[in-house]
Amino acid sequence: MGEIIFYVGLGIFIIGGIGLLIAAFRTSILWGLAVLLIAPVAILYLIVHWQDAKGPFKLQIFGILIIAVFTYMNEGTTVPTSANTILSDVSFSTFTNSSFSSPNVPSQQFRCDGRQYCSQMRSRAEAEFFLRNCPNTKMDGDRDGVPCENDSRF
């Protein structure tokens, strides 16, 4: 659910940016090209042509507010977990040494931080902690209480 909120905010922000670009091109081709190619010119355009640019600007502000609320609700996590999954797949695929996974790590060292997938876990104990204590985990496809059954790292 949180990812959807993030993407909705991002979509609204992008639509506002496109609207600002369209408003600049409606003013003149030079303003449009300048706003498109030179980032600080967008601020200048916003100031000089406030009446034309205030609608798209407000959309962008609304999108940023949605993203900020998502960030606050997810304890500072600004990247959705699907993006984190991709990043963790890359980093963990190169480190399959058994020294990185210690199944006897006490659960006091773990905390719910938004991770949801087996590829984001460092040990079976960590996966079990997340499955028992954290919301929205996606590590037990057959719902038998055993996480990451098909993960060859554990």
Summed up:
The protein is mainly alpha-helical and 154 residues long. The chain has six helices and no strands. α1 (2-27) runs antiparallel to α4 and α3 packs across α4 (50-73).
β-strand percent reads under 5%
What is the averaged pLDDT score? 79
Can you tell me the number of structural domains? Answer: 2
Order of helices and strands: HHHHHH
Report the end-to-end length measured between terminal Cα atoms: 29 Å
- The Rg value, from CA coordinates, equals 22 Å
What structural category arises from helix and sheet content?
mainly alpha
Got a strand count?
0
Number of separate helices: 6
Helix content range of the residues, please? 55-70%
Shape: elongated
Tell me about the largest β-sheet. none
Uncertain residue segments: 83-107
Characterize the quaternary organization of these chains. Answer: single chain
Short key terms for the protein model shown above:
154 residues, elongated, mainly alpha, single chain, 60% helix
Describe this structure in words.
With 154 residues, the chain is mainly α. It is 60% helix and 0% strand. The relative contact order is 0.11.
What's the SSE blueprint?
Layout: H1 2-27, H2 29-37, H3 39-48, H4 50-73, H5 81-93, H6 124-133
Helix pairs in contact: 1-2, 1-4, 2-3, 3-4
